[in-house]
Every structure is written in structure tokens, then in C-alpha cells.
Write a structure and sequence with these properties.
mainly alpha; about 80% helix
Length: about 130
């Protein structure tokens, strides 16, 4: 599910939105920079799916990566000059979707790997 969401985000960010940069105020180079995140996440998530292993570090990695993408999107919202309402709405939608995904991933993590907080053991368990 995460790989497909990242693929959709990649298609929007790198494929569709550069044509609408005059509406969003987000220049193509900014959009291509943002697109590198879902590209990496898509490859990583698909690779984890193909491995079919249930290692906690894999889920935690994508969970924290999604949180990083939220921070980067927020930084873009605050620093890019000339961003329009449509640009803000796109980035806000990305952030809200990612927050929902993080909540789901955290719930899955807790149900599969225990209800305790993240520990060093979770990263080294096979």
C-alpha cells in the first residue's frame, strides 16, 4: 500500500504538477526535488514487500522516512517564495495523507511487533 501511495505521489509531483507550476507557484526544480522522496520510498517499500519478511526496522524506516517527508514539505511551504494557494493546498494534502499513513503504520507496527515503545532490539531482530 505504501509503495503505491509513493508511486502516486511521484506521478503527481514529477509528472503532472510541473505543467501547473504557474498555478501552484512551485517551480519544476522544487517539485523534482520533492519527487526524489517518494521515488526512494516507492523502491524501498516495494523491495520490502517482495522480501515478504516482517522485520521491524523496515516498517520503522518507512515510518520515519514519511515523517521526514512531512518536515521537508513543511519547509518548502515556509521557504518557497511565490507559492500560491494551490501550492499550499497540494503540500497540505500531502502532509495530511502522510500523517494518516504514519498513524496506520504505527498501528501495524504495534500490532505485529509489540505494544512497547521503539527499542534498540526492534532494529536488530531478525
Amino acid at each position: 500500500m505504501d509503495a503505491l501511495g509513493a508511486l502516486l505521489s511521484l506521478a503527481l509531483t514529477a509528472g503532472f504538477l510541473p505543467f501547473l507550476s504557474s498555478w501552484t507557484g512551485l517551480q519544476p526544480n522544487v517539485l523534482y526535488f520533492l519527487a526524489t522522496f517518494p521515488l526512494i520510498y516507492c523502491v524501498f517499500s516495494f523491495r520490502c514487500y517482495k522480501l515478504r519478511s516482517r522485520k521491524p526496522w523496515m516498517l520503522l524506516t518507512i515510518l520515519f522516512a514519511n515523517a521526514l517527508y512531512i518536515l521537508v514539505s513543511g519547509a518548502v511551504m515556509m521557504t518557497v517564495q511565490g507559492i500560491t494557494v494551490w501550492g499550499y493546498l497540494f503540500l497540505l494534502a500531502e502532509i495530511l495523507v502522510l500523517l494518516a499513513v504514519i498513524l496506520i503504520e504505527w498501528s501495524v507496527y504495534r500490532s505485529f511487533f509489540g505494544k512497547t515503545a521503539v527499542s534498540a532490539k526492534a532494529f536488530y531482530k531478525s
